[in-house]
Amino acid sequence: MESSDLERPTVSRKLWVAQAVTAGLLAGGAAVTTVTPAWADAPVPAVVSADQAAKQDMSARAAAAEEARNYVHRLAMSGMPAEIRASAWNALLNSRGDEAIAEWLAPGGGYDYAKQRLRDTRARNKAFCARVVQTHTAEFSPAARAAAARALKGTDADRAAFVRTGYAEALQRDRASREADGQRKLEVANRDREYVRSVAETDSGEQVRVAAQWALRPGATDADIAEFFGYGWVNGATLDLESRRLRNADAERVRHNTLSRLIKQAEEAEAAVNGAVDAAKARAEAERAWQAVGEHAGAAQKAWLAEQAAAKTQAENWKHVAQRAKEAADGIWKSIADPAESTGDAWAEEQAQAVETARFWQDMYDRAQASESRVKG
Question: What is the pLDDT of residues 102-116, one digit of tens each?
Fold first, then answer.
């Protein structure tokens, strides 16, 4: 009698038990394990054909390729620098598909080249002007915002001049205008100064702490505190968010490139088991290869869980700031109300994306575990 003939009754008996239990539950009864015949729990030999194994391998490889493409698409649609977004779109639109994505993510590929362009002085000047427009409101800093907008639409020389001297000069004009206009001059209470001191000491954003410390530097006046609320706070928050996005993009680029390499190695190691002179040794090598995939995915998932927690903290903090600004009676807080709300929304989006990315890496970890178990037999 063939082994397959022995397996069929066992499978059918287990199916019958499952159907009986399901029927009992649907009828309102309770599933009682003690009534299950002993033979129903007998192990069923696991037989995985070569085609099934190949299909599972393809599934892991296809899932990795799909997420790599999704990752590049997220970069293209994100608030990342224009150089990276444009380069990401070029990779996505390339007719070579997944191959082009893999090359873009590889060391020395399109992503690295785009990052290198960010170091160019002209690109940095343009980013600075754009950030001033984003973080300086027309109500609090009309001169600085207008000058930045003009430079942004102008030439490289215009932007260089704004960064070199134009920005500082515009800030001075804005301060002088507020001082001269009694209605626009903001009163700074002791509680406001103490709040800034708390931000300088405890805020989770490095650049926010730097901005708060600058407002409290020796010789600083109430005008410096007012300017922290007016643009320094949100400017520091924007820098923190930009830094976080770049750091995560760098790390994820490496993770995806490494994942593709590890899956390829695991597939090759598993394929080598068939026909190997020393099958036990080949199987052990295949197990270790899939284990490496799992370890890599597990570490990535932990990293994204940490990013999720950090983004959640930031989102909640900015939600609190926005609420306090809306409820504040003094005018100094009103400058931060709208920027705080939009910053909180941005961090909430970062949190949601971290959740999705962590979910992918958990799925990849599970796939690697299943493949390792399959190789063990």
Answer: 999 999 999 999 999
